[in-house]
Amino acid sequence: VETGPLLCTSNVLHAGRTMFTAEAKVADASGKLYAHGSGTFLVYPK
Q1: Is the entire prediction scored with pTM above 0.85?
Q2: Domain extent at residue 26
Q3: What is the 3-state secondary structure (H, E, C) of the chain?
């Protein structure tokens, strides 16, 4: 990226009682994708 803002968007793809899957994408103003990440996370009850 030479100059200009980047936009990071994220989404929860699946949410269960103890696990969820999410993704995030980083793109510039024209929509060019620079990064994509996803993960599965375990939620511990309190």
Answers
A1: no
A2: 6-42
A3: CCCCCEEEEEEEEEECCCEEEEEEEEEECCCCEEEEEEEEEECCCC
